[in-house]
Amino acid sequence: MTFQDLQTEAEYAMHRGVSVRTVQRERALRKGPPFIKLGKSIFYRPAAIEAWLLSQEQTPAGKAT
């Protein structure tokens, strides 16, 4: 992985369809994916985002597994 592979905080928010402030709030509450902080900038690894999204998967109520 290279530095170019990382997503900025704004790119991550845009892909999720939420505001940067929502991403910041989730990060403060430790609800979002793992992140990398370089100086004052926040970056996300695509693999970490994917793993976090998969961990959020839920089975609809009333469905037998």
List its traits:
single chain; 65 residues; alpha+beta; Arc Repressor Mutant, subunit A; three-stranded antiparallel sheet; 3 helices; 3 strands; 42% helix
Note down, in words, how this protein is organized.
By secondary structure, the protein is α+β, with helices and mostly antiparallel strands. It has a single domain (3-54), classed as Arc Repressor Mutant, subunit A (Orthogonal Bundle), CATH 1.10.10. 42% of the residues lie in helices and 14% in strands. The protein contains three helices and three strands. The chain has helices at residues 9-16, 20-28, 46-55, and strands at residues 7-8, 36-38, 41-44. A three-stranded antiparallel β-sheet has the order 1-3-2. β2 (36-38) and β3 form a beta hairpin. α1 (9-16) crosses α2. The chain is globular, with a radius of gyration of 14 Å.
Distance N to C terminus: 37 Å
Helical proportion? 40-55%
The CATH topology name reads Arc Repressor Mutant, subunit A
Number of domains: 1
Number of helices: 3
Number of strands: 3
- How large is the radius of gyration? 14 Å
Just give the CATH class.
Mainly Alpha
Shape assignment: globular
- Chain oligomer state: single chain
Structural class: alpha+beta
Low-confidence blocks of residues: none
The ordered H/E elements are EHHEEH
Strand proportion = 5-15%
The residue-averaged pLDDT reads 91
Order of strands across the widest beta sheet?
A: 1-3-2
Q: Main sheet, how many strands, which sense, barrel?
A: 3 strands, antiparallel
Which architecture name does CATH use? Answer: Orthogonal Bundle
